[in-house]
User: Which sequence fits this backbone?
């Protein structure tokens, strides 16, 4: 076999990991792109073609080849670059134009974290750590990016407010996390714009919709990390403290889906005593009785059968006993003697029949 060119893997994995994750961390593209490489049979593990997903490898013990090029263990590297205008934020370019990774002084395979369009400038991170790249670019983590933008004209307060509320573009409604005016120029204005979820050329398209053309766009910060005085086109390594602050920023801004629990809403009872259809969650009234709108199994309310509440069976029996006692007491008072107890009971029983 011909001498193989060495590629780079990762050194932080102490246990087997999915093959596409190892490849992505080594800089062979996103995990989705690495999955396509695996499915097309272009990856070998210990001399055997691995053409199915789900295969786990230990980069420290196993030999992995991608298109005949070997992945080797190496330490991770992190760089900050002040990207000049005209440089491409892409892994490969068929036309051979200058790329971000061409400006990094390293013999390892690295790739840029996120993108800046060709006309834009400013901070861009370059690494071979796929996990950190995912933390900083995935919308789920919402790590903020700060831009200084020179626009033509001076946007009014209403325009700035509209940018926060949101503007509809072709694919979705987009909005900025924050925006403020920095200073005015001869024919324009500098704005500071903060995004927590980026789309393709979002700032340029948003301002164009609001009739303010972008003249210059520079990214000055990613999360807590600022560009500072780094010269245009220069790069430097990130410190351990800066890496830790980036990871904390991603962990502290993780977006969670808002779940709204089921709420039982009881309809208000009208003055006539009729309520809406209630269920098990029907609320009690201030007097402690249940909402009359609640259904009762086996019993029909008086309002449904068209009779008055006093005409229900239980109330009728009680009223009959009272009336019999009153009538007996009245007759006894008129005779001046107490009514016989036995006779009164007979009358009551006959009344019941």
Assistant:
């Amino acid at each position: 076999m011909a001498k193989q060119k060495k590629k780079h893997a990762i050194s932080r994995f102490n246990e087997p990991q999915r093959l596409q994750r190892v490849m992505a961390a080594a800089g062979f593209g996103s995990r989705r792109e690495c999955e396509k490489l695996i499915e097309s049979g272009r990856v070998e593990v210990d001399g055997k073609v691995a053409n199915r997903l789900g295969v786990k490898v230990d980069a420290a013990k196993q030999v992995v080849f991608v298109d005949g090029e070997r992945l080797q263990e190496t330490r991770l590297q992190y760089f900050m670059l002040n990207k000049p205008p005209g440089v491409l934020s892409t892994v490969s370019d068929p036309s051979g134009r200058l790329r971000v990774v061409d400006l990094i002084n390293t013999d390892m395979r690295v790739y840029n974290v996120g993108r800046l369009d060709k006309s834009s400038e400013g901070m861009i991170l370059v690494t071979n750590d796929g996990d950190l790249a995912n933390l900083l670019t995935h919308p789920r983590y919402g790590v903020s990016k700060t831009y200084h933008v020179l626009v033509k004209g001076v946007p009014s307060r209403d325009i700035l407010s509209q940018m926060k509320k949101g503007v509809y573009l072709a694919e979705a409604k987009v909005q900025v996390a924050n925006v403020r005016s920095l200073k005015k120029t001869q024919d324009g204005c500098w704005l500071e714009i903060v995004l927590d979820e980026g789309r393709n050329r979002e700032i340029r398209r948003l301002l164009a919709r609001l009739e303010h053309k972008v003249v210059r766009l520079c990214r000055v910060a990613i999360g807590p990390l600022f560009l500072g005085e780094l010269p245009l086109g220069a790069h430097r390594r990130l410190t351990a403290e800066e890496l830790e602050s980036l990871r904390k920023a991603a962990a502290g801004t993780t977006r969670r889906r808002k779940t709204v629990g089921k709420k039982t809403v009881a309809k208000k009872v009208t003055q006539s005593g009729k309520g809406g259809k209630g269920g098990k969650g029907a609320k009690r009234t201030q007097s402690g009785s249940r909402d009359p709108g609640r259904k009762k199994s086996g019993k029909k309310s008086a309002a449904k059968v068209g009779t008055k509440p006093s005409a229900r069976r239980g109330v009728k029996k009680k009223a009959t006993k009272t009336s019999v006692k009153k009538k007996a007491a009245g007759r006894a008072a008129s005779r001046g003697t107490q009514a016989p107890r036995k006779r009164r009971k007979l009358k009551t029983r006959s009344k019941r029949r």
Summary: Residues 151 and 213 are 6 Å apart (CA to CA). The first helix runs from residue 19 to 25. Residues 1-13, 256-312, 314-318 have pLDDT under 50 and may be disordered.
